[in-house]
Amino acid sequence: MGAAGVPARFILDSVSMSLSTASPTIVWFRDDLRIRDNAALAWAADRGPVIGLFIDEDQPRALGGAARWWRDRSLTLLVDALATHGVPLLRRSGDPVVLLTEVVRETGAAAVTWNRRYHGPLRERDAEIKTQLREQGLEVHSHAGFLLTEPWEVTSGAGTGYKVYTPFSKAAFPLADESAARLGDPMPAQLTGPDTPVADTGGIDAPDPFWAAEMATHCRPGEQAALDRLGDFLDRMRERGGYADGRDEMARAVTSGLSPHLRFGEISVHRVWEEITAAADAGDIDATDAQVFRKELLWRDFAWHRLYALPDMATTNVREQFNRFGWAWDEHEAARLVDGRHPLSPTSSDEFHVALAAWRAGRTGIPLVDAGMRELWATGSMHNRSRMVVASFLTKNLQIHWRHGEEWFWETLVDADPASNAFNWQWAAGSGDDASPYFRIFNPETQARKFDPDETYIRRWIPEYGTPEYPAPIVDLKESRREALDAYEAVK
Q: How far apart, in whole angstroms, are the C-alpha atoms of residue 410 and residue 288?
C-alpha cells in the first residue's frame, strides 16, 4: 500500500510563537494519540502551557500502508481534540535528535516529555535524546503507559524475562491490576496551550489511496472511536456475555475490536483493564469472560516483553533449529510491497510464487483461508481465529516462510505492530517463544465446521463460493500436512 498522505488540518510544518509568561512543555506524541489517561500529557499540563509535537522519523521498519493510513487519520483527529484546549500540534519530519533541539529553541520550551517505547533501536534513540536535552539544561521525563507492565518489572527468579506465557501471566497479572487501579481523572487538569497561539498553516487533507476506499468504510480511527468501541464491547458483554466461549466464532460480533486503538494508543490499555475489572467486580459482566479478556491483554504485553529482549524478532527465528527448515523463501519479495503495488498475481510462474500470490489474494480454494484473507484486504483486519488458520496454512500446508506472511500482515493490517505481528507469526510457525508446536497444524475444514458451522463468515467474504467461479484447492490438506510433519522430523 502506498503513502496515505499527510493529515493536515492544523498540523504545522513551521512555527512562529511569542513566549508565554510560563515556558511551555513539549509533549512528543508517538504511539499515544489520545488526551485521556496520557501520563506524559498530564505531567506537562501540570507544569503549564503545552505544545504537542509529532515527528515523522525514520523507524527500524517503516509503517505498513494500512497502519499508516490509520495513524494519519488518528493524528488529524488528535489535532482537533487538542485545539479545543488551545494546544497546537506541530508536525515535523526528520531526525528527532535534531528536530527536538530546533523546536525547543523556536518555542522557548523548558521541558520535554513522552511516553516510553520498548523496541531496542527506539529505546536507544530516546536515551540519546534525553541525554542531549538534559545537557542543554532542559527537564526531560519519560512515562509508562503503552503496556500494562514494564519489561523490567516482570522477571523470573533468575532475573530474566519469561519465555513462556503462563508463568509470565501469573507474575504480570497482579502488577497490571495495581497499575490500572492507580488511574486517576482521565483528563489532564488545566490543559492549555501557550498564551499566543501558533499560526495555522492551513494544510489540506490528502485523498485516500485507491486501496483504502472499502477499508475506510470498516474503520473508525481516533480516541472517541476507541472509547465508543470499549463502551459497545462492555454493553455486549453485559447483555449477552459468552466472550470466553464465543470469541472464536468468526461470524459473531463477540471480540472487542480494540486492537488498532491500542496499537496507536488511542485508548489506554490501563483504562481498558480497569473498566473490564470494575464491571466484573460489580457483577455486571461474567467473571470468566473478564478473566479471559484480560489474559489476552497480557498476551499483548508478553509479545512486547519478548521484543524488548529480542529486537530482531521480525527477521530471525527465535528457535535456531528452524534456521535449517526448508521453508520457501524469496529475499526480494518484501521489496515488491511498495507504492501500492500489492502483487496479488504471481511475480513469476514458479510454484512458490503462484501459491504465495493465491494466499494473499484469497484464491487458494480453501474456503476459510480465502475468507480470512479477503476480510483482511477489505477491512484492514481479520478475526483472530482466522489469523491462526491462515498462518498455519501458509507455513505448514504451503511450507512458505513465516516472514512472507508477517510482511503481508505488516502491510495490510491496521493494527500491525512490531511486537505482536512478529511474535504471533513465530508462534503460528512454531519457531518462536512459547510457540504453538509445529506439529499442531490447523485443518481449515475442521476449523470451519467448528467455528463457522453455517458458513456465514465464508459466504460473507467469498460471494462466488459454491459456484464454478470459485477455484479448486491449490493443495491437498492431508498430503501437505504429512509433508510438513516429515519436514519437521528432519530438522527436529
A: 32
Number of domain units in the chain: 3
Same domain, 158 and 82: no
Q: Same structural domain for residues 8 and 69?
A: yes
Q: Is 415 annotated as a binding residue?
A: yes
Are residues 426 and 334 part of one domain? yes
462 located within any domain: yes
Over residues 370-390, mean pLDDT: 97
pLDDT score, position 249 = 96
- Give yes or no: residues 128 and 157 share one domain: no
Answer yes or no: do 56 and 122 share one domain: yes
* 255 marked as binding residue: yes
Tell me the pLDDT tens digit for each residue of 303-320. 999 999 999 999 999 999
For residue 28, being part of any structural domain is answered with yes
Q: Binding residue per annotation — 243?
A: yes
State the chain's mean pLDDT as an integer: 90
Same domain, 377 and 277: no
Pairwise pLDDT comparison (4 vs 96), residue with the higher score: 96
pLDDT of residue 198: 59
367 and 483 share a domain?
Answer: yes
Residue 416 annotated as binding site: yes
Q: Has 257 been labeled as part of a binding site?
A: yes
Chain-centroid distance of CA 210 in Å reads 22
Look at the pTM and tell me if it is higher than 0.85. Answer: yes
Q: Residue 212 pLDDT more than 90?
A: no
Residue at 121 is within a domain: yes
Q: Is 245 annotated as a binding residue?
A: no
Same domain membership, residue 169 and residue 30: no
Domain containing residue 436: 320-491
